[in-house]
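Quick one, T. Sequence first:
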Amino acid sequence: MQDYREGGFEKPQVEKENLPDITLMWPSFIEQLLLDKPKLGSLLSQAKLAGFSSGFIELRFSPSFKFQFQELNKKPNRDEICRRLRSFMNLPTIDLRMTLETDSPDDNDLKYFPSKAGFERSINYETEKEPIIKAVLEIFDGEVIE
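Structure tokens:
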């Protein structure tokens, strides 16, 4: 996907009375963020888009994505995402409201944007899948922090 700033595709134009359809724009925003800031893009790609209004975007994280939630709530990361959202969506102000769910959502409710960074969705999945990781954890007396 090409950068909208380089003329690869047209930047969405938003009139003040009309809010952009965030559900259509979100995947493009994540793709662009993955190109420009891979770490932030991969963290944000695990969020579930839960709501949108003129002043904020609401994101939810499954309990298994606690690390991503914590990293994105750090002020520099949050500020960078908000700055890029304002630019991408052509809005004067936008804020993120992020929530870490306490219960695992139903399988039907999993609408997370698929990770484009090639990372597995959960470290627990990776640990179960690869016996070498278990061995390394045992050798170094390590533990998986959720």
